[in-house]
Write a structure and sequence with these properties.
The protein is an all-alpha fold. The protein has three helices and no strands. The protein has helices spanning about 1-20, 35-50, 65-94. The protein is elongated. The termini are close together.
């Protein structure tokens, strides 16, 4: 059971770190972000907020597809918060 929880925490940590990639200032994103990008950006938004203390990174993609990107961002944020609390509770009780 402990190995499974540890593996789950490692996977969540790796997924989180994948969203913290550095983009050089002045580089313009070639494609427009869509619904799926909005979900991903929303999921990493709580962690990006912490990273913003140390580096200048963006939390919201511009240009984007508008309403669909916003909807995906909100879905991602609401999905990321419970997962973060779950990881915190699991690590507290281990």
């Amino acid at each position: 059971m402990k190995k499974t929880i540890l593996l789950l925490l490692i996977v969540v940590a790796l997924i989180t770190l994948m969203g913290c990639g550095y983009v050089e200032p002045g580089n313009i994103q070639a494609e427009v972000s869509d619904f799926w990008d909005g979900i991903w950006h929303g999921m990493v938004a709580p962690y990006t907020l912490i990273v913003r203390i140390f580096k200048d990174v963006g939390m919201y993609a511009i240009p984007n597809t508008g309403w669909w990107y916003d909807f995906g961002f909100i879905l991602g944020v609401t999905g990321a918060i419970p997962l973060g609390w779950l990881a915190a509770l699991i690590s507290f009780f281990l």
